[in-house]
Design goal:
3-stranded mixed beta sheet, about 200 residues, single chain, 7-stranded antiparallel beta sheet, alpha+beta, 5 helices
Length: about 200
């Protein structure tokens, strides 16, 4: 009982902080002239969740997404599952889709079967993009089980070591990935409410 009360207080504090932040993620990419080797990066807004698309050296792009395992992978979309994901940490998954034949935003509808609300394009340093991609790919290479395909999202999922929670959900994880690319993120895109400013 005390454990449940602690989790509820923790959740309330986290949600309160998000509301105070306005639940808007203001994204400020680095200045293009500050980049030694700029490459195109894409932040995809799918309405309630978001994902990140990074270029591949060998051509094409790779898309990454993070989410609650039962909700995104097992398709358990009923109210108890959603409430459980918000009230206490649950199993999470990292999704990846590799698309060697896709290279322009005009084709991105093919890599996001769940739909697209917006595509935000900007540039980041190639070395940082490569480092983030390698770090995310390590989860797939080191996974104890085979990736689970999802036709609904066009991705393969593997378990992620940090559990899903109200303060570690899909949009907030994407915001952390942006920070790894030296992209400033102000506020909170908890509801996938993104605003990308031109540097």
């Amino acid at each position: 009982m005390e454990h449940r009360l602690y989790l509820l207080r923790w959740l309330g504090a986290g949600l309160g902080a998000l509301l105070l932040a306005g639940c808007v993620g203001r994204v400020l990419p680095p200045e293009p002239r500050s980049l030694a080797e700029p490459v195109d990066v894409y932040l995809l807004d799918h309405g309630r969740h978001s994902s990140l698309v990074l270029p591949r050296e060998e051509g094409g792009v790779v898309r990454y997404s993070y989410g609650e395992w039962r909700w995104y992978v097992e398709g358990r979309r009923h109210l108890p599952a959603g409430a459980a994901a918000m009230l206490w940490p649950t199993k999470s998954g990292l999704g990846r889709g590799v698309y060697p034949e896709i290279s322009s935003p005009g084709q991105f509808h093919r890599l996001a079967p769940e739909g697209l609300t917006d595509v935000h394009a900007f540039q980041a340093e190639a070395a940082r993009v490569m480092a983030l991609r390698r770090r995310l790919d390590e989860h797939f290479e080191q996974a104890a089980s085979e990736p689970v395909p999802s036709e609904e999202f066009g991705l393969e999922f593997v378990p992620y070591p940090r559990r899903y929670s109200a303060v570690h959900q899909s949009n907030l994880v994407v915001a952390r990935w942006l920070l790894a690319l030296d992209v400033d993120v102000h506020g909170s895109p908890w509801f996938s409410n993104w605003r990308v400013d031109t540097p």
